[in-house]
Amino acid sequence: MFYEPLAKYIIEALLAGTIALSSVGDAAPKAQVKPVKEPKPVVAVTDLKASTISVSTIKVEWNAEKDRDYSIYCYTETAGEYADNMYFEFRGNDMCYINGLREGTEYEMTVTPVLKENEDEDTKLKSQKVTAHTETVEVIWEFEHIDGWTNAFAGEPASGLKNMPASGAIYGSIPDPVTHTGIRRDQYGDYCAALGLHFGLDNDRYLVELLDGTQFTVKQCDSKGWADDGEGKWHWFGGEGNGKCIIEFIYDDASLPSCVAYSGSWGYWNWFGLDLGSNIKSIKKINYGEPIEY
User: Fold this and answer.
1) Mean pLDDT value across residues 271-285
2) pTM
3) Is 113 in the same domain as 147?
4) Is 24 a member of any domain?
5) Which of 48, 103, 136, 255 has the fewest CB within 10 Å, making it most exposed?
6) What is the CATH number of the domain that holds 110?
7) What is the dihedral of CA 287, 168, 176, 201, to 10 degrees?
8) Co-location of 182 and 251 in the same domain
């Protein structure tokens, strides 16, 4: 038998519980909906690679975005005193020759995308790094220093080398694709040149260093014989007693710069990092290295 007072108590208790639960529910703080943050756009350098061109040039390539600029930073721990000689020669927005470097030296290159005009300032620009070495040469012989005006770098046309061994030595060379000199260069990164018998014969190879630290390699593709000094060292440039033309570049007939055609020498200018404005510090006969691709 169900007693009425007890039933009334149970019903009131259940109602009280319901009311209490409802009160707790009303007092609880409402959850705030947080806005979803969109990820920041990212522009990254990809497929970065570097290759050796010569004792003074490294080629850097990467996968570039259309219409975007890129910056390059080049660092070395061992040849920092020559940092001012560096020159960055961009070819489009996906490749750059770094010229004016030092022989046998490791460099670290960092390529970074540049923010476009009107692009979101929150865009994350992601760099990429790569290391590479300039060519390391093996020296066979170092010649004595020659005093005087020795950066009188005259030239002769490649079309004049028709007989062996000069025609064989020049074979396969192309107009300088890196420093815009118009001088012929071979598959080892060497500039083609004529030197006297004091230094060697056709197909010999040399490392040349100037007083300002500029370095480059030349391949002997013609002989100056015993030259004007009678010892096979130099021809006079600008008349007897003036410049000593020790290295005579061999240029492509269709690519001779007008300034050289007028002055007769490459030694007055900085050719995109090949600064020929200083006299010769040393000439060393060297062995051949590995072929390269410009």
Assistant:
1) 98
2) 0.84
3) no
4) no
5) 136
6) 2.60.40.10
7) 40
8) yes
Cα R_g (the chain), whole angstroms = 35
Q: Which one, of 215, 204, 153, 223, lies nearest residue 183 by Cα?
A: 153
> Identity (one letter) of the amino acid at 97?
Y
**SS3 readout for 99-158:** ECCCCCCEEEEEEEECCCCCCCCCCEEECEEEEEECCCCCEEEECCCCCCCCCCCCEEEH
The answer to whether residue 162 scores a pLDDT higher than 80 is yes
Tokens found for residue 234: 């130099």
Task: Report which residue type is found at 76.
Answer: T
Same domain, 241 and 162: yes
Same domain, 266 and 198: yes
DSSP β-ladder status, 205-210 and 215-223: antiparallel
Range of the domain at 170: 139-286
**How many domains does one find in the chain?**
2
Same structural domain for residues 261 and 205? yes
Q: Is the Cα dihedral 246, 251, 255, 261 positive or negative?
A: positive
Strand partners, 98: 58, 88
Residue 167, phi-psi category: left (phi > 0), alpha (psi -120 to 50), beta (remainder): alpha
Spatial separation of the C-alpha atoms in residues 7 and 26, rounded to whole Å: 29
